[in-house]
Design a protein that fits this description.
Elements: H1 2-11, E1 16-18, H2 19-27, H3 37-52, E2 56-58, E3 64-65, E4 70-71, E5 73-76, H4 89-99, H5 107-111, H6 113-130, E6 138-139, H7 140-148, H8 164-170, E7 180-181, E8 188-191, E9 205-209, H9 212-223, E10 232-235, H10 241-244, E11 258-262, H11 267-279, E12 285-287, H12 289-299, E13 305-306, H13 317-320, H14 325-336, E14 339-340, H15 351-357
Amino acid sequence: MKRFILNILKNHKNKWIRLDSLVDQLSKSKYHISSDEQQLFLFRQAVIELVSENILIKAKKPQVISFYQLDEKYLINPTAFTPVSLLSDKQLYLELTTGLFHKLGKNYYLQHVQKYKEDRPYILRINDLVSNGPVETLTANERAFELFGDEKALTSPKHAAFDGNVVLKNLELTLEDIGAEIVSEPFVYTKSEGFDTRDVTSVRTVLIVENKDTYWTLKNAVLQSDLDYIDMVIFGKGKAILSTFRYIEEVGGRVSDRYYYFGDLDSEGIEIFNLFRKKYSEYEIVPAVAYYEYMINKVGVENAKAIRTHQKVKDCSSFIGYFSDLTGHNIKTIVENNLYIPQEAINKTDVMELRVIGLQ
């Protein structure tokens, strides 16, 4: 209904529009405001919204029509339907100072009117959103598409046609103010058959795996009870685990469980482990030592491959400390020479060996 009202206002010849005229014109679009209670409610809400958006302006001494609980006439804002290119700086200044919701910061655009002209379509959408009371929370990508026409404008502006964060900064708004929430990657995991039936005092074993293919191989092995010492496998997806692991308790994990991490053997894979362990320090997270040692022995240090893109070598001493002197020396050699062994070196043909060696 609001779309039809906007169309009527846009084509209206006079500065003022009477409510009865608006109702009559809506009846031509098969809206029966006077006889349909639901349509009356929607009509009333639409007019109230248009007033809050400064498209309709109340008279100084309005006469209220009791049936509609609305004023008998409204002034149509002369700038509401004027192409921005035709608006003077004075009109834009007036709109900025009197036409925008009070929660929107205006200092930046008052000093950069030309920039306001460029960003105005997005600013007006934001104004409409925040001026209508509490904002329902959407994901950041959903809200970005709604406001900026590009779903990446807030979360990945470098890959978007427009950087929505700049407009929010200029308006002194946060993602929370526009009801936008950045969500994590999906938390992908597989439980063994007995994971949820184990006694509360039981300590279960959870393995976090960095890469997709290795997760898939080990997940199948757990479901087939080939690795019966593992109760849950989690797909870490590289650094995504730093945000997704916060859901561990929602899926039944406990602080008292044992957590093992297994990733690529390179500087970046070790850095992920260090960051992961630091962020979730309340959990006892350790490397899957036996899996790393098996992977090194299978491939051989001499066959470790050169890193495709240079990685800055970070301090690996805390990670190396979990291993024997020989294995620690081999890991240090691999990392310091910008080499790597991908965890995909382990595949389903190794599962029977993994069954014997365990994780630690």
